Fold this sequence. Notes:
The chain is an alpha+beta fold. Helix content is about 25%, strand content about 25%. The protein has six helices and 19 strands. Strands 1-2-16-5-19-3 form a six-stranded mixed β-sheet. It has a four-stranded antiparallel β-sheet with strand order 4-17-7-15. It has a three-stranded antiparallel β-sheet with strand order 11-8-14. Helix 2 links the parallel strand 1 (about 30-35) and strand 2. It is globular, with a radius of gyration of 19 Å. The protein binds fe (ii) ion. Fe (ii) ion binds next to loops.
Amino acid sequence: MQTPFDLDNSASYLRWRDQKLKHAITDTSELIVEIKDPLALTSFEHNALLDRCQRSNMVIYATRDLPADEAMVRQFGLQFGLKSLDANWLAGEQGITRVTVCANDGKRQAYIPYTDRAIKWHTDGYYNSPDRTIRGMILHCVQSAGQGGENRLLDHEIVYLMLRDENCDFIRALTAPDAMTIPERADEHGVARPAQTGPVFSVNADSTLHMRYTARTRSIEWKQDPITLAAVNALEKLLTSDLVHIHRTRLEPGMGLLCNNVLHDRSEFNDNVQHPRLLFRARYHERIAGT
Ligand SMILES: [Fe+2]
């Protein structure tokens, strides 16, 4: 199948690039779509959500239908063909994780998502094995923080485009199968997760682009050659720039992010003690249908 993400096919790439830049959303307010009932979207709402995802791989939906539960998130995802939930060892029974501060839970509090600290730019599941690649994601806000907890969002296709424009060799380096290694993580019982070596950019079976990345500097090993390190440096520069494609937003109760696992981060936050921040996170192996 032809893909614009092939370095040997610049005609296809340039056509895709034109369309991408023409339609990509740069105004964050355009990314937000109000919906009435997340369990039963109207075709108008569904089309509006899908349109954003086709253009920018993400949409922020906003509903007044409160409160939500895991079943709602699951049913919402099904309407976009999202059905293969990734079984996470910290996730609840339904495969949907409650992301909240776990101060007294020894297992969870070791992981930044379950603290009130900032999380650097990443795509979800960058440490997963290839058979558990996370291509789709829903992050639904039940309760926002008293203060902070904003997200920045960036379409990974835009990152690919900017890097390829800058230097094709950056893409060559970041698609190498040994570009990035996440070392094994051991717990008190021994090895919980083996080391994962793989590319940053890869092409899915349906010719769409996948990105595996984390901006963390500990527990990650980059291939030690000049072009890989230069590519990583260029990528870091992009993520700290004021690129118009970087969206800044804060999910409030009833709002959520539906996306093809785009790059995102989280700022630190302070909980309101009575109402601690709570998000439902669903990770899927497939992308949003029709994108
Ligand atoms: Fe994440």
